[in-house]
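Appendix B. Chain record.
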Amino acid sequence: MRLRRPVLAATLIMLASPCFAESSTPIPVNNPPAQQNSFVDLLALISGHCKTLKVAGRPFACKTVAYAHDDRGRVNFAVAVDDPTDENHVVSFSGENGKRADDNSYELPIDRMLLNSKDRPKVDGLPVPAEQASKGICRQTGNFAARKVNDVTCSATDNEGRSYELLFVSDGTPVSVRRIRQSAPSIQDPFK
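Structure tokens predicted for this chain:
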């Protein structure tokens, strides 16, 4: 079964609950679309709430964060945005070459933001996210193998100067981890 980023977005949308938030408007993107030839091989859904979620400096609420790893080593921390005006609003902090400092911490350098909304072009009925070159970092405390993640913090700035922030705190529910297909590990782990 082939799962692409749009399927991840659809999964996040179904899990998000509506609440009151500032309405969204499309963020202009100045990067050409990249080829989407990779497939998600590991998906972890983390239940909790956002203490902070800012998209291009604007505050939003969210419910779910997903960690998605693809077969080429790219990782996304995808955030289902609670946006009453846009059920397809998903923002992802995306990068490669994540590192584990120990069994309970993970850092991912961010090199792009993936911005999805109802206004994006669709493939197979699902919106395809715009990619915006960015710089930043995400930090996760906790461990997927133990099915416990405490929090995820991310901060990035895109090449247009817009800022993105996330502070997501787990509600203690065990993380739902799904290995979709086997692939080579891409995390730099000094303990193995």
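Further analysis of this model is presented in Appendix C.
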